[in-house]
Amino acid sequence: MNAERSTPNRRDVVRAHPLREALLTLIDRDGTTTSTIAARELGESTGSCSFHLRRLEALGVIEPVRGAAGRVKPWRRVVAEQATLNRELEDTAYASWLAAKTSGDEDFAFSEVVMLADGDLAELRARLHRVLRDFVDSEPAADSGTPTAVIIRAFPLREE
């Protein structure tokens, strides 16, 4: 059988179990947590919390806090590059939108390769940021707004 298999991304695997989401929310709130604290806060067993904390570590989302005293094993978020997290969110959200897209939905996307002199990339970034800021700072009527992803990437192309 030659069936295509898709590999879920890390975000999907993390969200595959509600306890993992709850553990991450707890860590985000407090900075760290242990399986004992998580069990008490979330009404779960310490064994279940410990298992899912180790799974989150294997997925590269959290790490043990180094230098903890005794048998206490606190966990914290792994500091990831924000750009990597944003790209994962963008890719997941865009794939979800495409799957639910109807013929009337508008997908406005384009790309250009431009020649920029030294210093122009910083100017381009500043201008695009100002344009986007106008929309971020404005508030639509209460019932007319739709959360919309706006993705802008500008980087020098390197010859390999």
Tags for this entry?
two-stranded antiparallel ribbon; disordered N terminus; 160 residues; 4% strand; mainly alpha; elongated
Query: Largest sheet, described in full?
Result: 2 strands, antiparallel
Nearest-integer average pLDDT: 78
Q: What structural class should be given to the helix and strand makeup?
A: mainly alpha
Give a count of the beta strands, DSSP E runs of length 2 or more. Answer: 2
Tell me the Rg in angstroms.
21 Å
Shape: elongated
SSE run: HHHHEEHH
The CA-CA distance between the termini, in Å, is 39 Å
Helix content, binned percent: 40-55%
Strand order in space, largest sheet:
1-2
Q: Report the sheet-strand fraction.
A: under 5%
Would you identify the regions where 5 or more consecutive residues have pLDDT less than 50?
A: 1-8
* Oligomeric organization of the protein chains: single chain
Structure description:
Residues 1-8 have low confidence and may be disordered. Helix 3 packs across helix 4 (46-58). Strands 1-2 form a two-stranded antiparallel sheet. It contains 6 helices and 2 strands. It has 160 residues and is mostly helical. It is elongated, with a radius of gyration of 21 Å. It is 48% helix and 4% strand. The chain has helices at 10-14, 18-30, 35-42, 46-58, 82-100, 120-137; strands at residues 62-64, 75-77.
